[in-house]
Amino acid sequence: xxxxxxxxxxxPEPLASVELLSRQIMSGGYDLNLxxxxxxxxxxxxxxxxxxxxPMRLPCSHIFCRxxxxxxxxxxCCRKEVxxxxxxxxxxxxxxxxxxxxxxxxxxxxxxxxxxxxxRKGHQNSCPFELMACPNEGCTAQVMRGVLDEHRQRCxxxxxxxxxxxCGATLAASEGEQHNCYRELRDAWVQRHERNRTLLLSLLGRxxxxxxxxNFIRKQLAQLGDFLEDDSLLLSSRAQEPxxxxxxxxxx
Length: 252
What we know:
Elements: H1 13-26, E1 55-57, E2 63-65, H2 66-69, E3 88-89, H3 91-98, E4 101-103, E5 114-116, H4 120-124, E6 131-133, E7 142-144, H5 148-159, E8 160-162, E9 170-172, H6 181-251
Protein name: RING-type domain-containing protein
Organism: Neotoma lepida (Desert woodrat)
Keywords: Metal-binding, Zinc, Zinc-finger
């Protein structure tokens, strides 16, 4: 697919610099410096002169970045009216551009990785040269992801200390003046008291359940004993009946 480039007029160097800066700010396309090798000229937008981002084709067949062309009322190449409802996304071209090799945005910091444009964000999420904010409270440092754990450990150890009065609390540097040992110990006692109370109530509940179960088993055993006793008496009375009949026959 080809994209027609507009002719450029020669302008004084200061004006050219201003124009270039303005174009970079308003650009809807990808910066050329992002790519590992110069992209094909057919992949360039004639409005921002960057690599086409979310390319859209007009009915006149000219292709531009979506962001660039939505600012226009007429086609920058042929001056035909731009009708948004007739624009078409060029997904095939978008996928082709997505396969172009790009440098990591942290290349100047030392990252040598190149990857397809479509995978660039995925790499940034794991790049060891990406700047990360230290998560420790009170620390405003920005450090590379690869050394963040080391910095965080050092920062945490340097920024925290035990209470010098011996209450056992671990304090950040910003908490020293507001720290109150009595309040710290009272809060710790209240938390422990509530925890012990919860454990005690749980144990009492279990003891009650065991007591009810024991009483139920005791009643069942008593009923079983009564049943066995009645059954034994019944068997013994039946055993005595034949003997009585035999004695009655012998007496006759």
